[in-house]
Amino acid sequence: MAISWRLRSGLSVLRRSFTAGNAPAVERGLAPRALLCSSVSTPAFARNFASSPPEKELKVKVPIKLFGMSGNYASALYIAAVKANSLDKVESEVRTLVEAAKQSPTFSQFMKDLSVSADTRSNAIQDICSQAGFSDITRNFLVIAAENGRLRFLERISERFSELSMAHRGEVKAIVTTVIPLPLEEEKELKETLEDILGEGKKVILEQKIDPSILGGLVVEFSQKVFDISIKTRAAQMERFLRQPINLDGF
């Protein structure tokens, strides 16, 4: 009962903060500083993933600007996958390989070992893709990553690619941190509240995290914003307030 009351109280504050045009309790940017690799041109890079370019090239714009090496690879893969109308398939295939690496220490070490020649890495990846029945887009992407020694960053590239795929589908990932798991009804209520705040037909994909250190309440992260109404944060705010010097000049 107490948890339910705290959640409803928090949702009420969350809704008022956004409908009134105010900023949430804490706001921070999640995108890293721009580290674009000048040697990689994303549109041209994306064309390398396609087995044969169409006669009239489709113009594709990434829904989110990503930076750094992983962002470049993810953006290029996204463009190629959208042009081939195989975004979901490519996302699933890349994720499958990432999970395979997690399950196999030998395969994981192979992906990280730069002492293995580029040809050996490339041939091995082509064999794996053929056996798994991966699409040409995924195979070509993985071969390029293997040749350039980027397979060791595949998990991060996959995560960035999923960000683009979710944005393409109108999905927004929200992370809610609580002391204990939210009951289904409260999880549903939180999800509906966030979707109402985001509007425009956005679909919230809710991920729960358990962190006893916040003591109670909840922390919600979505759309590069953080709304923190945890007991830990409120206690810290109260402590700072109590430590402020008292002005007795008027007495």
Automatic annotation (TrEMBL):
Gene3D superfamilies according to UniProt: N-terminal domain of the delta subunit of the F1F0-ATP synthase (1.10.520.20)
Subunit structure and binding partners: F-type ATPases have 2 components, CF(1) - the catalytic core - and CF(0) - the membrane proton channel. CF(1) has five subunits: alpha(3), beta(3), gamma(1), delta(1), epsilon(1). CF(0) has three main subunits: a, b and c.
Main location: membrane
Keywords: ATP synthesis, Hydrogen ion transport, Ion transport, Membrane, Transport
Protein name as catalogued: ATP synthase subunit O, mitochondrial
GO cellular component: membrane
Family: Belongs to the ATPase delta chain family.
Entry's localization field: Membrane
One GO MF term: proton-transporting ATP synthase activity, rotational mechanism
Keyword Cell membrane listed: no
PANTHER family, per database record: ATP SYNTHASE DELTA CHAIN
One Pfam short name: OSCP
Domain of life per record: Eukaryota
